Amino acid sequence: MFTNTKQHFAMARVLGVAIVAAMGLAGCATYDDEFAGINSRLDQLDTKVQGAAQSADAANQSAQQANQRLDQIEGRVRQLEAAPRRVPRG
User: Which of 6, 19, 31, 86 has the least C-beta neighbours within 10 A?
Assistant: First the structure.
Protein backbone atom coordinates (compact mmCIF):
# COMPACT_ATOMS: atom_id res chain seq x y z
CA MET A 1 0.00 0.00 0.00
CA PHE A 2 2.89 2.34 0.78
CA THR A 3 4.48 1.64 -2.63
CA ASN A 4 1.24 2.42 -4.39
CA THR A 5 1.14 5.88 -2.76
CA LYS A 6 4.72 6.56 -3.86
CA GLN A 7 3.78 5.69 -7.43
CA HIS A 8 0.78 8.00 -7.31
CA PHE A 9 2.93 10.78 -5.87
CA ALA A 10 5.59 10.28 -8.57
CA MET A 11 2.92 10.24 -11.29
CA ALA A 12 1.36 13.43 -9.89
CA ARG A 13 4.77 15.12 -9.87
CA VAL A 14 5.45 14.09 -13.49
CA LEU A 15 2.03 15.37 -14.56
CA GLY A 16 2.61 18.64 -12.68
CA VAL A 17 5.96 19.18 -14.38
CA ALA A 18 4.38 18.38 -17.76
CA ILE A 19 1.58 20.88 -17.18
CA VAL A 20 4.02 23.61 -16.13
CA ALA A 21 6.22 22.88 -19.16
CA ALA A 22 3.24 22.99 -21.52
CA MET A 23 2.11 26.33 -20.09
CA GLY A 24 5.63 27.69 -20.43
CA LEU A 25 5.87 26.64 -24.06
CA ALA A 26 2.45 28.11 -24.84
CA GLY A 27 3.60 31.41 -23.35
CA CYS A 28 6.73 31.41 -25.53
CA ALA A 29 4.65 30.97 -28.67
CA THR A 30 2.64 34.07 -27.75
CA TYR A 31 5.81 36.07 -27.24
CA ASP A 32 7.20 34.82 -30.55
CA ASP A 33 4.16 36.24 -32.33
CA GLU A 34 4.54 39.55 -30.50
CA PHE A 35 8.26 39.73 -31.29
CA ALA A 36 7.54 38.97 -34.95
CA GLY A 37 5.05 41.84 -35.05
CA ILE A 38 7.47 44.20 -33.35
CA ASN A 39 10.28 43.17 -35.70
CA SER A 40 8.01 43.77 -38.69
CA ARG A 41 7.17 47.27 -37.45
CA LEU A 42 10.85 47.99 -36.80
CA ASP A 43 11.68 46.89 -40.35
CA GLN A 44 9.01 49.23 -41.72
CA LEU A 45 10.34 52.10 -39.63
CA ASP A 46 13.89 51.35 -40.75
CA THR A 47 12.78 51.49 -44.38
CA LYS A 48 11.07 54.85 -43.78
CA VAL A 49 14.12 56.23 -41.99
CA GLN A 50 16.40 55.13 -44.83
CA GLY A 51 14.04 56.79 -47.35
CA ALA A 52 14.01 59.99 -45.31
CA ALA A 53 17.80 59.94 -45.06
CA GLN A 54 18.10 59.53 -48.83
CA SER A 55 15.67 62.41 -49.37
CA ALA A 56 17.64 64.55 -46.94
CA ASP A 57 20.89 63.72 -48.76
CA ALA A 58 19.34 64.62 -52.11
CA ALA A 59 18.01 67.90 -50.69
CA ASN A 60 21.43 68.67 -49.21
CA GLN A 61 23.12 68.07 -52.56
CA SER A 62 20.60 70.30 -54.31
CA ALA A 63 21.17 73.03 -51.74
CA GLN A 64 24.94 72.77 -52.18
CA GLN A 65 24.57 73.06 -55.96
CA ALA A 66 22.29 76.08 -55.54
CA ASN A 67 24.82 77.71 -53.20
CA GLN A 68 27.61 77.12 -55.69
CA ARG A 69 25.51 78.70 -58.43
CA LEU A 70 24.74 81.68 -56.17
CA ASP A 71 28.45 82.10 -55.46
CA GLN A 72 29.13 82.16 -59.21
CA ILE A 73 26.37 84.70 -59.84
CA GLU A 74 27.41 86.86 -56.88
CA GLY A 75 30.78 87.62 -58.48
CA ARG A 76 29.06 88.72 -61.68
CA VAL A 77 26.56 90.90 -59.77
CA ARG A 78 29.36 92.64 -57.87
CA GLN A 79 31.15 93.26 -61.14
CA LEU A 80 28.04 94.83 -62.65
CA GLU A 81 27.40 96.95 -59.57
CA ALA A 82 30.97 98.22 -59.56
CA ALA A 83 30.94 99.12 -63.25
CA PRO A 84 30.38 102.79 -64.06
CA ARG A 85 26.86 103.78 -65.00
CA ARG A 86 26.24 104.10 -68.65
CA VAL A 87 24.63 107.23 -69.90
CA PRO A 88 21.54 106.57 -71.96
CA ARG A 89 21.69 107.60 -75.61
CA GLY A 90 19.52 110.20 -77.09
Answer: 86
